[in-house]
Amino acid sequence: MKVLNDLLDYEGIKINQRNDMFNFSLDTVLLARFATLNTKIKNILDIGTNNAAIPLILSTLTSAPITGIELQKEAVQLAEENVALNHKIEQIKIIHNDINEYVKTNANVKYDLIVCNPPFFKVDGAKLNEKNKLLIPARHETDVTLEEIIFAAKKLVANRGYFAIIHRTTRLLEITALLIKYGFNIKRLQFIHPFVKSEANNVLIEARFQSGAGLIVEKPIIVHNKNYHYTEQVLKLFRK
Question: CATH second-level architecture of 2-237?
Answer without folding.
Answer: 3-Layer(aba) Sandwich (3.40)
